[in-house]
Design a protein that fits this description.
mainly alpha; 10 helices
Length: 403
């Protein structure tokens, strides 16, 4: 296996989406030209979506169900816009993190046992990429299927588009209808890619960090197991101390990489978590309470399921980072350091082990804007907030109808 040229489906798909949405740092003049084109059509799609929904909300004011649906779409587009702006500002750091992982994690020659641990991380990354791409396409297909189903049996002069345009132009007639339909579908697809683009590399990076911590634990546990008739206690201590130094260097590399991820993604995570709870509350309202068509109901179902899975993967991969980084403490303590002689090297080894344990007591984690670390507790807290928003909206709408 040639580790220097290593790649997999998750890395390829994450890199493609970041290039497709224009947040990748170009390395050549051609890539810079492609990035400018990507930024142009992504910006147009986001701005077009915002303007379209603002006009629709203005003209549909008073129709609660319609305005709720449009508000949900507006929140998705607004969240995607903010995250894309943040990552465009940090695209140099993102590219630096990618090449950092490529140098230190993806291009190392692992032993067969370490390669097995590495392959587990790759398997998780691949599953995440498949889930993310599948559900974003299912969610986007709802916006395409809805007008297609609604247009069945209608006259050509009465056809509807995926997103309503308030204008006197004959957009329901051929060929204007077909052209506008294609433009809106492409814009929706670009917005969907912008929606998942910031978290694609984040989750892939988190899962590889998990794998690196597990590889580090394996090395710490196994460098004590040396059998040699020619090695006395002094030589064995020196061997263990040299191996421990390499583990410390590996540990420092992982910690530095986690700090890079924190600098890049802390504000995008905060934006995502702040908006996603409201979005899932709106999805629940539209699915359970609102009187919507079956085709539109399918859109909300896929969007709600996709948002839930998206949030689950994000918090779960961040939780892996916390869990595996704290496991270093137990792994170091279970070594055979207590059997080593108390010479100069032995004392230095014990001192370094104590330092590693103290450092590992402070786990590596990613925060939401620096306010709180992201973990599985964040997932359960957001679900609780979603239920609260849903209950509040249902009670508000019930009171309005009674009045």
């Amino acid at each position: 296996m040639d580790i220097r040229s290593y790649t997999d489906f998750s890395i390829i798909s994450a890199k493609y989406i970041t290039q497709y949405t224009g947040i990748w740092l170009p390395q050549t003049v051609t890539e810079e030209r492609q990035r400018k084109i990507s930024v142009s059509y992504t910006s147009f799609a986001l701005l077009y979506g915002i303007c379209l929904h603002v006009m629709d909300i203005y003209n549909s004011w008073g129709d609660a169900a319609r305005c709720m649906y449009l508000t949900m779409n507006m929140l998705c587009i607004g969240m995607s816009t903010i995250k894309m702006l943040i990552l465009n500002f940090n695209r140099a750091k993102l590219t630096d993190a990618f090449f950092y992982a490529q140098r230190h994690f993806w291009h190392r020659k692992y032993t067969p046992e370490e390669r097995l641990i590495f392959s587990v991380s790759v398997k998780y990354c691949t599953r995440y990429a498949i889930f993310a791409l599948t559900f974003v396409h299912l969610s986007l297909s709802g916006y395409v299927v809805t007008p297609v189903v609604e247009n069945l049996g209608r006259n050509k002069s009465d056809r509807i588009l995926p997103f309503k345009i308030w204008t006197d132009l004959p957009l329901s007639e051929t060929p204007y209808f077909e052209v506008m339909f294609i433009i809106q579908v492409i814009s929706a697809y670009i917005i969907g890619m912008s929606y998942i683009s910031p978290e694609m590399f984040l989750c892939v990076f988190n899962l590889h960090v998990m794998g690196q911590f597990r590889i580090l634990q394996y090395r710490i546990l196994n460098f004590w197991n040396v059998e040699s008739k020619e090695m006395n206690a002094i030589m064995y201590t020196e061997h263990c101390y040299a191996a421990l130094k390499k583990c410390v260097q590996h540990h420092q590399l992982i910690i530095e990489f986690c700090q890079k991820l924190e600098q890049i993604y802390t504000m995008t995570i905060f934006t995502h978590l702040a908006v996603l709870s409201v979005l899932m509350g709106l999805d629940c309202y539209e699915i359970v309470v609102a009187d919507t068509s079956r085709s539109m109901l399918l859109t909300f179902v896929f969007h709600g399921i996709g948002s839930l899975i998206h949030l689950c993967f994000l918090t779960y991969t961040c939780h892996f980072m916390i869990e595996e980084s704290t496991n270093i403490t137990t792994t170091v303590y279970t070594g055979l350091w207590c059997t080593l002689p108390m010479n100069k090297v032995g004392r230095s080894l014990r001192s370094d082990i104590k330092f590693i344990m103290q450092r590992s007591l402070k786990p590596c984690y990613l925060t939401a804007g620096g306010f709180f670390p992201v973990s599985l507790e964040t997932f359960t807290s957001l679900l609780s907030s979603t239920f609260s928003y849903f209950t509040l909206m249902r009670e508000s709408m019930t009171k309005t109808e009674d009045e």
